[in-house]
Amino acid sequence: MEQRQSPLTPCGTVTCEVREKLAHQLTVPNAVPAWREFDSPLPPFICKMSNRLKEIKEELETLTWVKWENRFNVKDNQFPGVYVVAKTKNQVEGKKVDIHDIYYVGMTTSRAGLIGRLNQFDSGIKRGYGHSGANRLFKEIKNNIPYPKWNDGERLFVAAIPKKCNVDKITRDYQDLQTMGRIALLEFEILAMIKMELGREPELNKK
Hints:
Number of strands: 4
Shape: globular
Low-confidence stretches: 1-14, 22-26
Number of domains: 2
Radius of gyration: 20 Å
Strand order of the largest sheet: 1-4-2-3
Strand content: 5-15%
């Protein structure tokens, strides 16, 4: 297949300066396929981001889904971290996480930890308050039918990546703050990875 010539230069070559400028203008989901249309190596900037997202995908795929009702069994749920929720008619409990099943990605750095945030989500899907995404699921998607009384056969499952750290404002140290920052970053990295792999974000993250 003939390589596409870059419209940026008459001869079809791309200078280092132009490559770096273009790299920073492209997002990870479209950077790799777009760049490979040119007869030019991927710049380190794109390679590094792409490799990081692949690592995140591999980490997610080591997790197993837990039935929503058993969310208290999520390991180390007293710590903050990132969580993913599946909404499916399939029985995926105990199965490895498949990114195609991820319906929502969320995170928390609160003192209540992951279980506190999951309980807020639970309040949302049962009563319509407590968590913005879950509230929307209850009111707009399930027409105010509380979980688990949905009549369409769909059920929820959860998996999480906890990060051990102290979030107390008085006693936390700089390393705890770094970990909290990485948690927030990880949420967006998971969203970016899903968009890179599937061309879309999880349904409940779209609004």
